[in-house]
Q: What sequence folds into this?
């Protein structure tokens, strides 16, 4: 056993525990508290197992799940940038790249390269797996927002135009899931005023 390698791997695993401390803006389905990054990643991984049949193209499910499990680890350093925080988005990429260098750099070189490549693939959103992962990253909050009665949308004064802009590429991973989300998660909240119609 390579002592240095396993120590690096456990150090990385322990670092991942910090993801549980990164709060997001999306409420859990019961609306009592907001989810954290670790809960978000786990939830999307399970959703991918269940919903992968709706991908526009055939996907490697394990690769997609792997992407989803690590895509937000950079927020340990960079923090969560709210989907509609235009000011925060200006520095998001720079903050996240620096975080990716540090956090994935904790791993042994071969795994650091592998995990960073997965993260870069998610960010580029060009492969079928990355496109579907991005679809999950947009559909999961919409599902939870709807389940919580549109609470987060209403609190933040979110407009339909903001949601549509945020989701401009969601259909690239799954046209069926985007159509379902629009009809079942967005439209009811638009009708009842939780989402502003502008």
A:
């Amino acid at each position: 056993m390579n002592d240095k390698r396993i120590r690096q791997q456990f150090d990385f695993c322990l670092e991942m525990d910090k993801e549980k401390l990164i709060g997001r803006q999306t409420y859990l389905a019961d609306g009592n508290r907001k989810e954290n990054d670790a809960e978000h990643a786990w939830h999307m991984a399970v959703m991918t197992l269940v919903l992968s049949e709706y991908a526009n193209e055939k996907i490697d499910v394990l690769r997609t799940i792997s992407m989803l499990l690590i895509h937000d680890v950079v927020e340990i350093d960079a923090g969560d940038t709210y989907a509609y925080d235009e000011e925060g988005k200006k520095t998001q990429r720079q903050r996240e790249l620096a975080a990716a260098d540090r956090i994935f750099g904790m791993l042994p070189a071969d795994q650091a390269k592998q995990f960073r490549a997965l993260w870069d693939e998610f960010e580029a959103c060009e492969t079928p797996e990355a496109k579907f992962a991005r679809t999950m990253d947009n559909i999961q909050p919409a599902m939870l927002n709807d389940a919580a009665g549109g609470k987060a949308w209403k609190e933040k004064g979110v407009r339909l135009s903001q949601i549509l802009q945020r989701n401009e590429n969601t259909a690239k991973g799954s046209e069926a899931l985007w159509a379902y989300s629009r009809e079942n998660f967005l439209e009811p909240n638009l009708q009842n005023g939780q989402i502003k119609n502008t």
Remarks:
- Residues 104 and 112 are 5 Å apart (CA to CA).
- The longest strand covers residues 23-27.
- The chain has a mean pLDDT of 96.
